[in-house]
């Protein structure tokens, strides 16, 4: 694997791993504040970030060794509205800058596994930003978000509310590959 693509994937792995943990912490905080649906949303999206981290890790399976990894990640444990603002900011950065740049490099270097794992993440992060924005609007209005079951594709991290689709629109995985958070 080309070094630039490998470095980008390591950073993306770091970022997704941190997001996974950060959303679990923020989810527990939302639950403690009396927003069970926001808590459930954080936990569902945390699982999608785990899918992304796993995909990046597998794409780098031939690049072993220990590395110092620089990865962006938000910090701070504040009120749920502010935590949601941090989540939205992080997701939007990944959508607007990080993954498009990583995909461009991976395409230039003909690294197909990296292109795929970054595309999967890019598509899911768009949905995460929208879901978190809805949640923040509800919390800022003093109530929990209305939220049906949240379905997460275990192959690509696609995150959708309601029933799982017969086939994932991003990776074509069958319905049974979706995990419901309800
Ligand atoms: Fe995300
Ligand atoms: Fe999928």
Describe the protein.
This protein has 182 residues and is mainly alpha-helical. It has a single domain (3-144), classed as Ferritin, core subunit, four-helix bundle (Ferritin), CATH 1.20.1260. 62% of the residues lie in helices and 6% in strands. It is built from 4 helices and 3 strands, in the order H-H-H-H-E-E-E. Strands 2-1-3 form a 3-stranded antiparallel sheet. Helix 1 (3-32) runs antiparallel to helix 2, helix 2 packs antiparallel against helix 4 (112-140) and helix 3 (80-108) runs antiparallel to helix 4 (112-140). It starts with a helix and ends with a strand. The structure holds fe (ii) ion (2 copies). One fe (ii) ion binds at residues 45, 48-49, 91, 124-125, 128.
- Helix content range: 55-70%
* Rg (CA only): 16 Å
The arrangement of helices and strands along the chain is HHHHEEE
- Count of helices? 4
What class do helices, strands and sheet pairing give?
A: mainly alpha
Give the bound compounds: fe (ii) ion
Calculate the terminal CA-CA distance, rounded to whole Å. Answer: 40 Å
The name CATH uses for the topology is Ferritin
The CATH class turns out to be: Mainly Alpha
Give the strand tally.
3
Q: Given the C-alpha coordinates, what overall shape results?
A: globular
Q: Please tell me the total number of domains.
A: 1
Mean pLDDT over the full residue set: 98
Low-confidence stretches: none
If classified by CATH, what would the architecture be? Up-down Bundle
Largest sheet: 3 strands, antiparallel
